[in-house]
Amino acid sequence: MYKSIKIEYWTLPEGDDFDGIENFVKEIDKDYFLTVSKKRTDALGGGLYDLVIEISEDLSLMELTKSYIQDGVKLYIGYQAKEIYKVIKKLFEKNEDLHPTVEQISVKFKDCKVIFYEVYENGIEENFEEVITKLIQVASEQKIILKKAKEIHIPIFNHKDSNNICKYRVKLNVDENISEFKKVDYLNLWGIKTKKKEFVYNVPKGKLKKKKFCTQESYDDLFYSV
């Protein structure tokens, strides 16, 4: 797998594109193969000009855990996210009228994908490096489960949704009933998916429980099946 950055966002069919998007593309680190996809939608409301970013790395989470002390790989991934945010901020400053945000950032390792959700403004940027550091520690302590992990969702919440569909879940795009999100959320509960099972990891307690949790996609599936 090669190192790449994939960025997606939505506009209205006749909506404006980002002013300065060409310069944005040029400024992204050339060490990564960059793909920027603009999609058009007739849907009104949230989601327009919200960036979804996926960074693909050419190592596994387990390889990262073994080597980060010796060669600084952990710091490089953190550095890369910071550099991307510098360029994003320039783009957003030019396009304040579009109210752009970063909705989520995924780091796609060879063995699993780690998905960071923007639960409050600049939440991912503010917590990214600290969470990566903690993730490496957890991976070394929970090797049996983390070796099998296919997805890690950060953060999730133990909070009943408005429709009483699920207890553990990510922040929802619609009808979210949690009134306030904080920095501590990123190091509180994580959702872990293996090929066949789901787990909730309590970060402060260092405890892993076999529990189902909802992503936005699985929540929508349950909502529309009722």
Question: What can be said about this structure in brief?
Answer:
By secondary structure, this protein is an alpha/beta fold. It has helices at about 20-25, 60-70, 75-95, 125-140, 145, 215-225, and strands spanning about 5-10, 35-40, 50-55, 100-110, 115, 150-155, 155-160, 170, 190-195, 200, 205-210.
- Report the order of strands and helices: EHEEHHEEHHEEEEEEH
**β-sheet strand percentage:** 25-35%
In spatial order, strands of the major sheet run: 2-1-3-4-5-6-9-10-11
- What is the overall number of helices? 6
Helix content: 25-40%
Characterise the protein shown here.
A hairpin with a 4-residue loop joins β4 (101-108) and β5 (113-117). The strands form 2 sheets. The protein has a 9-stranded mixed beta sheet with strand order 2-1-3-4-5-6-9-10-11, with helices on one face. Strands 7-8 form a two-stranded antiparallel ribbon. The relative contact order is 0.12. The mean pLDDT is 87. The protein has helices at residues 21-27, 61-71, 73-94, 123-141, 143-146, 216-225, and strands at residues 4-11, 33-40, 50-56, 101-108, 113-117, 151-154, 157-158, 168-169, 189-193, 198-202, 207-209. The termini are far apart. 32% of the residues lie in helices and 25% in strands. With 226 residues, it is an alpha/beta fold.
